[in-house]
Amino acid sequence: MCKPAWGRARAADQRLRDLALLRRVRDRMDREYAQPLNVEALARGVNMSAGHLSRQFRLAYGESPYTYLMTRRIERAKALLLRDELSVTEVCFTVGCSSLGTFSTRFTELVGMPPSVYRSNAKGTAAGMPPCVAKQVTRPIRNQETPVAEPQPV
Predict the structure, then answer these.
(1) Is the distance from CB of 54 to CB of 39 less than 8 angstroms?
(2) What is the reported pTM?
């Protein structure tokens, strides 16, 4: 059965409102990545349920809010690791992660190597490079995490 024209228009209007709210959530994560954010808090900020926010965010951006936030944090961590001013633990907490283990695991998934190895391999890589170019070069690959080696048969 087809929806009447007014029903389709209402659904389209609701979708546009949801997209505007999702942009606000994404912008907040971009600005406040170092704050203790979770899906419930983000959803409260736009008067949505956490489940609805997660589903709509994934539909709009192709990844969960948590994955998007962790990618932002890893991007910032990569930049901080290049500076060599902070330890890996300090970088972890500076970008808003509360667990060094989770930070290291997610960093390794996205970048393909642990943070300490990234720091030692990347020394001098971005030297002399304008910050806007260095940001593009060091950006993690989203939705294409580094493949995990398959277990070998014994």
Answers:
(1) yes
(2) 0.73
